[in-house]
What we know:
The complex is a heterodimer.
Chain A: E1 4-7, E2 10-13, E3 19-25, E4 30-38, E5 45-51, E6 57-58, E7 67-73, E8 76-81, E9 90-98, E10 106-108, E11 112-116
Parallel strand pairs in A: 2-11
Antiparallel strand pairs in A: 1-3, 3-8, 4-5, 4-9, 5-6, 7-8, 9-10, 9-11
Chain B: E1 4-6, E2 11-14, E3 19-25, E4 33-38, E5 45-50, E6 54-58, E7 61-66, E8 71-76, E9 85-92, E10 99-101, E11 105-110
Parallel strand pairs in B: 2-11
Antiparallel strand pairs in B: 1-3, 3-8, 4-5, 4-9, 6-7, 7-8, 9-10, 9-11
Amino acid sequence: GAVVSQHPSRVICKSGTSVKIECRSLDFQATTMFWYRQFPKQSLMLMATSNEGSKATYEQGVEKDKFLINHASLTLSTLTVTSAHPEDSSFYICSARSSGEHQETQYFGPGTRLLVL
Amino acid sequence: QKEVEQNSGPLSVPEGAIASLNCTYSDRGSQSFFWYRQYSGKSPELIMSIYSNGDKEDGRFTAQLNKASQYVSLLIRDSQPSDSATYLCAAAMDSSYKLIFGSGTSLLVRP
């Protein structure tokens, strides 16, 4: 149980284009999903918290107009990197928490590696 | 600022030994703690969660929590080369369910 998927696993795009990343909870309903970014040799950096049916809450320093988050259902959240630039190249990872027991537990997706040329 | 601190390592242990990973946290209000394992190039994988003072065992893994000392540890018994990874300690913040992650400890198990 507690499986989270992400798609795509890897994407290469040209500078200036937009990229959408999907995060799905496969066997549970995710009240909240979180989006992280991880640069090489660094720890996870929380970008935003996404609650189903409401606007995402962004961490300080994260541009909400650049990183669009939609959490349309209890099993799907999407992150769109708009007008991507080479500095946006990173490992993007989502996590989901269930509404059941031990709600603090986050289960991570496999991540999406973004390379912007 | 709420923080979780870990020694970055690398911690090197021989195969079969006990690996001891440590973590301290600053927020006394934190109630839930987690250990994640992250292999290079992969996303974090949940190993253990712990909520109460004392020890919690799961197979070769034992998590220890001491809220008075604001200290969490993870012991890995009979370490295997496949345990070589970065271990992330995390503490849950308040009602937002956000996790604060430490920077991770790199573990190397030598065959």
